[in-house]
Backbone:
């Protein structure tokens, strides 16, 4: 008799989709927008959220679900600003799954929030494949990563509703070719808006804040 | 009758391991070293290889297997220097699997090479989980990514035999805390050597080249 070494999985993607659908129902009921922020490790996702929170504090209500493989460092950064935040640990996984996001959302007072932002695990590949019930994926790309990333990791840029180019303040010290980067993005997703920001100096934040709050407000 | 929606996989990790074992046999036979270079998108892996090739050209023989989700941009960069290079496209996957690496290795004249370097897909999470038969994983971390990455993505730093901190030339323009980064690395892997380099200026390349060539040389 031959030795069988077989693992059986149920349809993982299908199960994930079901939780994402539950989340869509929940968000519809409470009229809350959900953003899924995706980018490489160190792309500046948390810094963007810090600046966004500071700029909108008092006039727009959002909470953050911080996704990380390990540690609570990023949620601590946001909590220090009094931004409502929960930490989602992926348990070694390279992306957040819809079920974990759904349970974390259910623990929030969604009725009182205009939006929830999920900062996904730092990874330009896998998180783009997993629907978490979001209204929009946003691709965050630091200009320190080089202009060719949209062509090399196209799925995210195809799936996203907006791109935020970060760390623009470092431009004088890099050989980053902005024109070529924009053309790589256009090659993958011709209609997508691209916002160029420096969370450090505040440069370019206004168009981003306008796009962000435009996704939904209970007013 | 209930609808069944079941996918069956054979043991993927086991199959991967078998190909990695075949690669280990092959490398032993030809006395060739294999490095698995892992880091985020834009961490400077290709730039490090460009500088390494230029410095060792003529006295040490290595070839590169360039791993990418899409495009052949990185292999073009190395080919322009006359560095022997093959492009490995992961087909959308977030890491390279042992089988693909094995077939690419078999196409090289390993007898004539001191080493082969695999530049894995840009990703700080998944590639660390997949054995490709390498003698050493090397973690490449750009200082633009922030000092806390070794704590947030610990698996790679635990598995690696060396860490290369890159883009040191940008230090004056960043608030990167080197001391704290080194302590995060030590917290995960107390014995690992950490080399600080700037491929752009050549700063710190000597200790790296020494470590790199120390892995094996036929000459």
Residues:
């Amino acid at each position: 008799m031959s030795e069988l070494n077989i693992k059986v999985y149920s349809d993982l993607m299908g199960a994930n989709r079901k939780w994402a659908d539950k989340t869509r129902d929940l968000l519809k009921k409470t009229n809350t927008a959900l953003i899924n922020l995706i980018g490489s490790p160190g792309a500046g996702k948390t810094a963007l959220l810090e600046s966004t929170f500071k700029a909108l504090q008092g006039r727009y209500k959002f909470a953050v679900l911080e996704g990380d493989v390990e540690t609570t460092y990023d949620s601590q950064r946001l909590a220090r600003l009094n931004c409502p935040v929960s930490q989602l640990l992926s348990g070694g996984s390279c992306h957040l799954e819809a079920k974990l996001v759904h349970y974390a959302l259910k623990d929030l007072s969604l009725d009182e929030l205009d939006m929830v932002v999920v900062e996904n695990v730092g990874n330009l590949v896998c998180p783009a494949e997993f629907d978490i019930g979001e209204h929009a994926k946003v691709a965050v790309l630091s200009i320190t990563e080089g202009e060719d990333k949209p062509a090399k990791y196209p799925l995210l840029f195809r799936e996203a509703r907006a791109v935020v180019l970060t760390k623009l303040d470092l431009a004088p010290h890099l050989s980053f070719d902005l024109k070529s980067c924009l053309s790589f993005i256009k090659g993958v997703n011709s209609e997508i808006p691209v916002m160029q920001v420096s969370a450090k100096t505040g440069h370019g934040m206004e168009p981003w804040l306008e796009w962000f709050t435009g996704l939904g407000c209970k007013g």
